[in-house]
Amino acid sequence: MYPTYVSRAVRRDVDQIFYLVNEAFQIETGNEGIAYRSGEKYHLKDQTRKHIADMLVLRDHKQILGVIKSSFHNGTCDIGLIAVHPEHQGMGYGAKLMEAAETRNKASRFTVGLASCRSDVIPFFEKRGYKQLVEKPIEEMRKLYPEDLAEKFVSRDDICWTIFVKKNSVCENGDEDDGYQYNAQRE
Question: Which residue ranges does the record assign to the N-acetyltransferase domain (predicted)?
Answer without folding.
Answer: 5-146
